[in-house]
Amino acid sequence: MPELVELKYDLWERGLEFEYFHAAEDTQRTRDQVFEILGHHIGAFTVDSIVVEKRKTNPVLQQNLGRFYKKVLDILIRFLIQRCHANCEQIFVITDLLPIEKKRKELEKGIKTTLAQWTSDHQRTYHVFHYASKSDLNLQIIDYLNWAIYRKWERGDSRSYDLVRSCVRSEFEVFKSGTNIYY
Questions:
Q1: What pLDDT score was predicted for residue 182?
Q2: Distance (Å, rounded) from C-alpha 90 to C-alpha 78?
Q3: At CA 10, angle to CA 150 and CA 46, rounded to 5?
Q4: What is the C-alpha separation between 121 and 161, in angstroms, rounded?
Q5: How much is the pTM?
């Protein structure tokens, strides 16, 4: 989206030190401008998300964050594969760069295991890339969309979510039917 690049340059022209878009750290004014730009492109993308209520997460998974995130990613990837089963010749998974090499390798192994099962059954290919979100505008856009979904669920603040609601195709609640509260 060229408008986001233009916004970045506008911020520089206003004398703001600005490297990349990150919803949690950007000013409200910047967030408003980014969401306005995203609103102009609503038909160009869709978002599928999963919502995990951490207090309903079994303590065994809570103790090992690597295992927890692998499990959550497995659920998300399987869900996405089911949605695009007939239309996907290739799958590209692009994640934000994890700072710890060991965790990145664990996460990548989990992603590749899930994808390998699908590709071997359907003679398709996949690619997994890890980039710093600073380097990829798509990851910054996803950050904003995830932030809007997070704010809606965590704080009941749907202001930003309402601006992008029509591109949110699904919000799958992993533990929706769960009744155990662990903390």
A1: 82
A2: 14
A3: 35
A4: 37
A5: 0.84
Would you call 58 helix, strand, or coil by DSSP? coil
Rg (CA), the chain: 18
- CA dihedral (117, 172, 145, 20) in degrees, to 10, reads -40
Instruction: State yes or no: pLDDT of 22 exceeds 90.
Output: yes
Q: Two tokens at 77? A: 């990837």
- Euclidean distance between CA atoms 182 and 162, whole angstroms: 31
Residue pair 38/141 in contact (Cβ under 8 Å)? The answer is yes
Could you tell me the residue ranges of all domains in the chain? 2-173
Structure tokens at 83: 């949605």
pLDDT band at 35 (very low <50, low <70, confident <90, very high): very high
For residues 62 and 25, the model is more confident at 25
Q: How far apart are CA 18 and CA 54, in angstroms?
A: 33
Please say whether the dihedral angle defined by the alpha carbons of residues 140, 141, 142 and 146, taken in this order, is positive or negative.
Answer: positive
Give per-residue pLDDT as tens, 39-94: 999 888 889 898 988 888 888 887 777 777 778 888 888 887 777 766 777 888 88
Q: Do 49 and 169 form a contact (C-beta atoms < 8 A)?
A: no
In whole angstroms, give the CA distance from residue 23 to residue 141. Answer: 9
Structure tokens at 140: 């910054």
